[in-house]
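Key idea: predict the complex, not the pieces.
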Amino acid sequence: MNIKKQFKDGLITNNPVLVQLLGMCSTMAITTMFFNGIGMGISVLIILTCCNVVISAMRKIIPNDIRIAVFVVIIAGFVTIVDLLLQAYVPALSESLGVFIPLIVVNCIIIGRAEAFAAKNSIGASALDGIFQGLGYTIVLTIMCIIREFLGSGSFGKGIINTINGIGTGNGLQIFPEEFGAKLLTMPFGGFLTLGCLIALMQYALRKSAEKKEKEGNK
Amino acid sequence: MLTSILSISLGAILINNFIFSQFLGCCPFLGCSSKVDTAVGMGLAVTFVMGLASAICWVVNEYVLMPLGLAFLQTLTFILVIAALVQFVEMFLKKSIPSLYSALGIYLPLITTNCAVLGVVLLNVQNKYNFIESTVYGITGGLGFLLAIVLFASVRERVEFAEYPKSFEGFPICLVTASLLALAFMGFSGMKIF
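Result:
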């Protein structure tokens, strides 16, 4: 299998957030802190991989007419498992992500990948697809978190760096005083704006690379 | 009672607008807002389903899941209830009000995966609302969604004629527009009632 192509697809050319434009709600809502981004990204990565594997394994026995319902039940099962695990072992993360953990059920990335990839491909390929697409999602979330946390409150890694009483209690690295930060960026306004600018940047980069390829082709 | 309902409704429509301050339901918000007509249809359908789902899920949660000690199955149950509800509404509209059915078209089935619907149900449980409060929160949350999507669609129709950098074509310019609308809605956040 062409692992390299899948890797590049998930991270850059077919990135779930920046190119396929899936799962926007959670991307904009929870990216106010580095800790949230990493936590959410990894949760989605795990759920996506598990769902892809299960759906791919069952792809021949799921009747075509009710496949969406079956997908949703499988996804909801895994989301419940992750939700309970987070509540038990990382309560701080579970609290700060709140309603967005159960809402992974209706995250378009997971149902989209199930429909577009896992329902048609082998188990191994589907697992890899889950991992790489999940990684692509995690990376975008992390970038957005770093931008918004740094410009908004002047800190980095609040919650996981300089921890006092376990994960979720740290103050992070204060790079410049909090009162100088653009508070607006940690609010909903910043979510829309940061994601808009990131997608624009991605479109710019993809266009430039396409133009470059065209030029090389002409030579 | 009346004051709590009033504060819930004002909160859901303006102060904690589902889209501009809670980011619930962004996919249909960005996807179905290129024309005002479709935006109105989508908003009305979502309002209807959100109200119904809040009421039904409250009953299911209170009289089925809680007595049996199955609270951990909430997510799974709610999504199934919503999916069944949407299917049911679709069949009902097709039979009795075909004109509305054809106007809503493909947006009806899409409501199943709208996170505002599942979100409102989960928030009802989290906030421990009673039956009336849940239903009011569902309906007014839907009205807030309707307000946001209609405002956004009317702005978008004008943005199409504006000049902007080529890289911002399509989604990015929409997101920037939405961010400015969110900024406007932040003005409500200072409001406190009772």
